[in-house]
Amino acid sequence: MLIIAPGQKPGAFLLNRDRMNAYTYDHELITMSTMFINSMSDIIIKRFNAHKQPRDQIKTRVVYAPKQRVLNDLLDKDQNIKLPVISVYIGGIAKDEGRVYNKILGTYHTPANSTSSINEGSPLPIDITYNVSIMTRYQEDMDQILSHLLPYINPYFTVSWRTPRRPDHEIRSNVFWSGNVNVQYPIDATATQVARVVADLTFTFKGWMFKSQMKTENIFTFNTSFHNIPAEFNLKSFSRENSVEEDLIVYYGAPPRPSYIEPPHANPGVIQQFNAWGTGFEKITNVYLSGSPLQQFSTLQNPFSSVPKLSADYPAFMGVKLLSSEWAYNGDSFMTFVMPSANSAGFVDLIVENKGGYGLLTKNVRVNTFNPYSPENAMHDIFVPYQMPYLSGIQVIL
After folding, report:
1. Hey, is 116 helix, strand or coil?
2. Which of 391, 396, 364 lies closest to 294, judged by CA?
3. H-helix or E-strand containing 197?
4. Cys-Cys link to 84, which of 74, 136, 318, 336 (CB 3.0-4.6 A)?
């Protein structure tokens, strides 16, 4: 018998076949036809004796073929056909102008454990017409089959199916019955022809045909912050062709970039706190100080020795690794740290690390720009890029 979904609304039922997961067809038309054929299956006819007691149960066969083809193929040598049987075949396919799958042109979904997404174009809405012919030998068999079908397909029933390309995405399609049953009786049967009763029905499957999927790389979102800097630190570039002044804007992602420190100097034998400004401080993992005044505390630091892609760009260095309690950040652009007591004069560099690399104060304080003067100009040879006072780092003064 047909399986009725619990809690169904009047006039509709949901047909969901778990065994459809075993199908691996490459297009939806076969999937939809298979689901529709399954909706006609599992109909059991009972045969009764003279006392109205069941004496036999016959399962109705379902065959995908036109009625005439079924009658020719299922005849035995004695021109007998094994009834009952239900034949199903596609009568036509038409585009449905009144339906749309998604108002957005195409959808994107990311499979589990994947770094790329699948772009699935908007599918074509189609109406598939299925012609169904029920053939039985006895009128009583026909009555039982129609009693199994007609009460539950009025005005439609719903098929739950999935596309082979996207098995995790459920689609529910309504299948509408035309409302008519054309019954033919064997009124012209000859003496050699087996009598049979035939009922013809028509259904419209509201389905979809999908385009081929395309693999695309994911779009990642990077949160960035923009900060105002003093006017004297603005960098300008000049176009020699038309002498039009243009702003040169440089965007940095990783690693952190310490670029300003206060105060810019320290005294030996004093444990001192410093403030630093820059970018990329919210993802700090370690902070180091490197220089001759801290040589007695310094050891070899190689934070990316186990990361081949970073170790070449960020090699080992001599420095002091500060404890996590000796540094802190406040937002993306500000941090504080405490420098141990230095034992001699010299310069100390600030090195800030995150998972993408490390940034040095001495490399970020120098503003890199091209020479704005032409080679013929006397200023070309003496031009020096603007740089902050602590080009060599924090100065330890005796």
Report:
1. strand
2. 396
3. strand 197-209
4. 136
The bridge status of strand 214-217 relative to strand 116-120 is: antiparallel
Residue indicated by tokens 């109705």: 60
> Which residues are paired to 396 by β-bridges?
266, 346
119-163: per-residue pLDDT in tens? 777 788 999 999 999 988 888 889 988 988 898 888 899 988 887
User: Alpha-carbon Rg of the chain, whole angstroms?
Assistant: 40
φ/ψ of 231, rounded to 5, equals -60, -30
- The three-class DSSP label of residue 19 is helix
* pLDDT mean across residues, the chain: 77
> What is the CB-side half-sphere exposure of residue 1 using CA atoms within 13 A?
11
Quote the strand ranges of 225-333, DSSP E. Answer: 236-238, 245-247, 257-262, 265-266, 272-279, 286-290, 299-301, 317-321, 327-329
CA atoms within 13 A on the CB side of 282: 7
- Measured between alpha carbons, how far is 84 from 47 in angstroms, rounded to an integer? 12
- Residues of CATH 3.30.2000.40 domain(s) within the chain? 14-217
Is residue 294 within 8 Å of 235, Cβ to Cβ?
no
Name the 3-class secondary structure at 98.
coil
Which CATH number does the domain 14-217 belong to among 3.40.190.120, 2.60.40.10, 3.30.2000.40, 3.40.1410.10? 3.30.2000.40
Task: For residue 85, count CB atoms less than 10 angstroms from its CB and return exposed for 0-12, middle for 13-18, buried for 19 or more.
Answer: buried
Q: What is the pTM of this model?
A: 0.46
pLDDT tens, 188-213? 666 566 678 999 999 999 998 887 77
Q: Quote the distance between the C-alpha of residue 322 and its chain's center.
A: 42
> Can you name the residues that pair with 339 across neighbouring β-strands?
272
- 238-262: string of b/e by CB count within 10 Å (b at 16+)? beeeeeeeeeeeeeeeebbbbbbbe
CA atoms within 13 A on the CB side of 283: 16
pLDDT tens figures, 337-355: 999 988 888 999 999 998 8
Q: How far is CA 393 from the centre of its chain?
A: 47
259, amino acid identity:
S
Map tokens 């012609």 to a residue.
131
